[in-house]
Design a protein that fits this description.
Layout (H helix, E strand, L loop, with lengths): L3 E2 H5 L8 E5 L7 E2 L4 E2 L2 H4 L11 E4 L1 H9 L2 H12 L6 E3 L7 H10 L3 E4 L3 H16 L2 E5 L1 E5 L2 E7 L5 H10 L3 E4 L2 E7 L3 E6 L6 E4 L3 E4 H5 L7 E3 L2 E7 L14 E5 L2 E10 L5 H16 L4 H29 L1
Parallel strand pairs: 4-5, 5-6, 6-7, 10-17, 17-19
Antiparallel strand pairs: 1-3, 2-7, 8-12, 9-10, 9-11, 12-13, 13-16, 14-15, 18-19
């Protein structure tokens, strides 16, 4: 299961969380493992039964005002019970000043106490979106991800079979690169996979004979994408004489990534075959399938209809000859 430490959360700049540490430095190694947020209002009243320690606890104006109105002994006792649960962290919203007893208890227990200037509703929306992206299942796969006519195509196959060369040709035709060689695949509910490049390799591509090239610098920002939903997997395989390959398109093969099934097609590679054109047509065909139009099935239905019509006419001919 993916995890995120409070130290990593505190150092996150791109999400716009605007966090600062107030107390509890010793607990910065605490882990967050779920993207859900909790407001511990009842816990401040002494009821901690349904509190989830692995969730971020958000304290807004209502919670802090209630805490300040409690008798000091009661507030200290309830805070001690709350922090004793080894919660991941406490975050104060709207840039409010925390009560001294909260700061002291967080420091004593090693519970990170953070503060943001965002309002509670805005911060909860930001942190939930950020955690959903960071904590959902992910994996690394070897391949090339390209955006072809809005279809996320993941090219897979053995090293040296021509995945990067095919992707480069697609870029020259106006399509866009997402990631080359190493693709980070993330799951997003309910059953969607997104692919993106690794930080070090972003926008770069390895072409044997040329070396490493920067697609963004060579072709401009219109030739790249940061991330893309994966719609189709195409595996490039070496052509083998005598091997049977799908010629009608009726065989619908799938592959599984992170427990999610994706449509997959195997495309044999040999000299003289324009793989780029085949991949582009496969993307167009996938668009038609998503719209409910299946070319191979339509051909099969027409063929079966023609065969049935021929058999009917043939039977009528035989019956007519017998009557004469």
């Amino acid at each position: 299961m993916a995890e995120l430490s409070i130290q990593e959360l505190l150092g996150e700049d791109e999400a716009g969380l605007d966090l600062e540490l107030l107390a509890g430095e010793t607990g910065l190694s605490n882990k967050i493992s779920v993207p859900r947020i909790q407001k511990p209002g009842l816990a401040l009243a002494g009821y901690t039964t349904n509190l989830h320690p692995d969730r971020i606890q958000v304290l807004g104006s209502t919670e802090l005002t209630y805490l300040e109105q409690l008798p000091r002994d009661t507030a200290m006792r309830n805070l001690a019970a709350l922090c004793a649960l080894n919660i991941s962290c406490l975050i104060i919203t709207k840039g409010q000043e925390p009560p001294d007893i909260l700061v002291d208890e967080a420091a004593r227990r090693g519970t990170p106490l953070l503060r943001t200037h965002h309002q509670s509703s805005i911060f909860i929306s930001l942190i939930t979106k950020f955690l959903e992206e960071r904590l959902l299942p992910s994996t690394i796969t070897h391949g090339v991800l390209v955006d072809v006519l809005g279809v996320g195509v993941l090219l897979m196959g053995k090293s040296g079979i021509g995945k990067s060369e095919c992707a480069l040709d697609l870029i020259l035709r106006g399509h866009r690169l997402v990631a080359d060689d190493v693709v980070r695949v993330r799951s997003k509910l309910p059953a969607v996979l997104f692919g993106e490049g690794m930080d070090l390799l972003h926008h770069h591509m390895e072409i044997r004979g040329l070396g490493i090239i920067n697609i963004k610098h060579l072709f401009g920002v219109a030739a790249i994408r940061e991330r893309k939903k994966i719609d189709l997997v195409i595996e490039l395989v070496q052509w083998e004489d005598g091997q049977e390959y799908d010629r009608l398109g009726l065989e619908e093969e799938t592959t599984t990534l992170l427990g999610i099934q994706l449509p997959m097609q195997r495309v044999p590679v040999r000299p003289g075959r324009n793989i780029t054109t085949i991949v582009e047509v496969a993307a167009r065909n996938q668009l038609l399938k998503e719209m409910g139009y299946h070319s191979a099935r339509e051909f099969q239905d027409r063929l079966e209809q023609r065969m049935a019509e021929t058999a009917r006419l043939h039977s009528h001919t035989i019956i007519g000859d017998n009557l004469e």
